[in-house]
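Memo to structure team: turn this sequence into structure tokens by end of day. - J.P.
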Amino acid sequence: RKFYVEEEGALEVSTTTILPEEVLKASGHVESFTDPIVTCKKCGRAYRADHLLASKGLKVFEATPTEELTRLIREKGVNCPACGGEFNEVEKHNLLFELTVGPYVSKKRAYLRPETCQGIFILFKRLFLYNRQKLPMFTAQIGRSYRNEISPRKGVIRLREFEQMEFEVFVDPENKKHPRFSQVKDEKLTLLTEDGEELTVTAEDAVKEELVANEMLAYLLAKSKVFFKRLGVPEERIRFRQPPKDERPFYAIDTWDTEIYTDAFGWVEVVANNDRGDHDLNCHMKLSGEDLTVKVNGREFVPHVIESSFGVDRPLYCILENSVADDGRGWVFLRLKPCIAPWHVFVFPLLNREPLIKKALDVKNKLARSGIETGYSDVGSIGKRYARADEIGVPYCVTIDYDTLKDDTVTVRDRDTRKQVRVKIEELPAYLQALVRGN
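Reply from structure team:
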């Protein structure tokens, strides 16, 4: 929220999770938000046809017709993994969760939202007025989305209910620039093009060489890289893949997926960065009859939308996997960055003694009042308390001992280096704030 909403001055909204059928008809989800499904004639189990073929080394695209998928399954002798039975013909399975709204007689069809951005598109006209009719307009939303996946697997990689963050930028189609592009223009991007070529270029050169369609999209790529680096993902494990045209949304002018390498799953898509053109506003305008054109600098047009769409669950897994550390002696802990650690600091009395406990609680409250996320524990030996803090990723521990009662100094211990220094209590808040900020 700080990195995208606050730094970009975005308008953050929270929209309904239940959408009327008309909204998702306009967006195209009712008609085309599908996956290929195949069921076993013998046991009735259902599978994604493309996943079955992929397990046999055959790559198929999103646009591959169901008839072709059926032919490939027959030709390659792909049978049910559970019982060995033959499959029925491949069909399209809509991923929307359907429900009805209203009393029995007049109930209307609706759906749980498959993505958060449609709520933003519906609000566009009001948001544009609120933004004093200026472009580019940055908007954001964080919330639940729902997809009726055929066969969720690999834990956090595919889910039926997940948390989503979407950052939508409305732009003039003739001016797809970012006012602060200069801040990221030298950020190096590792690009895997649709032709399979891998190259590393700066964000500025990616635009100049027309590898990325426009400056705003290149800005969002660089922004996502900086975001994950700040969260502890090594730079060499971040790349951007341009899906082949058969895998992209049909309306996308350009698409680049931010991917992170994981030991468990290989390269994992964590952000979809798309130039969606004017498809969304045009579709909603056509079905609703609402005029969504704008007038800027004497020109009338339908704004284009450029987005970064995150799931929360996948990036969280990637960050955790890349934060697991071993001190070389078999002790495993989480090297979480302070900005996402559960606490910035834990305060410990050296021993479970009344004078030390009282002083430790005073220090804890002093730190909490200064805005430092502070935990406290007096249970177990000091070594075990350090170990528990390390395990959950707390970067710093403050220990109150008998010297504290004499000279008002405490021990500050660093999780990653295990080094300890003495700091005066009066200087402690400023000292820890500087550490948390990375200074």
